[in-house]
Specification:
single chain, about 180 residues, alpha+beta, three-stranded antiparallel beta sheet, 8 helices, about 65% helix, about 15% strand, flat
Length: about 180
């Protein structure tokens, strides 16, 4: 995954020359996370070429994000070992080219919590405050409701199967509220 990180980082740096290091890191992270690698593996139908054990085959391993993401990384590692960095770079560039160009939009939609934090720091000089207001369900099927406050004012409530998911939902709603507020003020 080091070769992948290096190549994607280089492509992002070349495409977003005015972006700061933090933004480039977020772009890279969202492109090479499990979801991003899973999408790349699906794009090349990698699951169809995997040799799986009986249990993994019966468990739907050809379509599991974790299996496909790991296999995709292994494939890129094999390209690197066989053909060197230049060959790996060309393969990565051909697969990630469109995603590199759309990285800014993908980060905004993939991580509303970070986007909201940047926005509130820049315009309100404060950070959002997240508070758990409800935890429901048995341990294996937990559900969370999280309230998001800005300068002590309740802005939104998010729901999710994890605290992180609920916080992301609350941040997404807060961004929508802030955008509407800016549009109509």
């Amino acid at each position: 995954d080091a070769v992948l990180d290096l190549a994607v980082g280089d492509m992002l740096f070349r495409h977003y020359q005015d972006a700061d290091e933090g933004k480039l890191s977020r772009f890279r992270a969202v492109l090479v996370d499990e979801r991003g690698l899973f999408e790349q593996a699906q794009k090349i139908d990698l699951g169809e070429y995997l040799l799986l054990g009986r249990g993994e085959e019966q468990g739907g391993g050809r379509h599991k994000p974790k299996v496909l993401a790991g296999s995709f990384e292994a494939l890129l590692g094999a390209v690197y070992l066989d053909g060197g960095y230049d060959a790996a770079y060309r393969v990565i560039e051909s697969l990630f080219g469109d995603q590199i160009k759309g990285a800014a939009h993908r980060v905004d939609s993939a991580d509303p919590k970070s986007t909201l934090q940047e926005f509130t720091q820049a315009f309100y000089k404060c950070l959002p405050d997240y508070k758990v207001i409800a935890e429901e369900g048995p341990p294996h099927e937990r559900s969370f409701r999280i309230a998001l406050y800005l300068k002590g004012e309740l802005i939104s409530i998010g729901k999710g199967r994890s605290k992180k998911e609920a916080e992301q939902e609350a941040a997404k709603e807060a961004l929508n509220w802030l955008k509407a507020k800016e549009t109509y003020s």
